[in-house]
Amino acid sequence: MIPNRPVKPPTEAKPLEGEVLPPETPAEREARERLRFIAWLLDSSIPIPGTRFTIGIDALIGLIPFLGDLIGVVASSYILSEAHRLGVGRAVLLRMAFNVALEGVVGIVPFLGDIFDAAWKANVRNVRLLEAWAERPHQVERGSRWLIVILIGAMALFVLGCIALTWLMLQKAKQAI
Question: What does the radius of gyration of the chain's CA atoms come to, in whole angstroms?
């Protein structure tokens, strides 16, 4: 059992070089509010009656095979371009792009992809990343770099696995002939 110790109040971390951003301008504040609204509209604007779940127009548009998913990715890319314009770092932008790409690729799968799209809410995730970056840019940037390293490693393993499975299938096909 942990003894009762008085809890120390959190100490303010000293900002690292380059971590402190200049004060937010009214235009930047307006852009973040606009992005927050767009994310809500695309991902959470329609409540599902009788549940606590919501979907957005992105999930509805995604019901149109392929074209709907393409439109959803284009709409989601607007948030990425605005984040870039606001000065978000490359690692955070890559993490945001991964969220959009995952939603787009999985969304191609009929019905199950649409359910994933409604649950994943890439736009809301990306706006949260943008807001976290605005509060603590260095911390979010560092965390995003680690995620990117892990994702690249996972993608490399996936590609190697696909190559291995393809090779095995070709060997089986040769044996069958």
Answer: 21
Global pTM reads: 0.68
Token pair 């009762």 is at which residue?
A: 4
Look-up of token digits 């993608």 = 155
Q: What is the pLDDT along the chain (177 residues), one digit of tens a residue?
A: 445 555 454 455 444 445 555 677 888 889 999 999 999 999 999 999 999 999 999 999 999 988 998 999 999 999 999 999 988 888 888 889 999 999 988 988 888 989 999 999 999 999 999 999 888 777 666 666 777 777 777 777 878 888 888 999 999 988 988
Token pair 């696995």 is at which residue?
161
- Reading phi first (left if > 0) and then psi (alpha if -120 to 50, else beta), residue 50 is in left
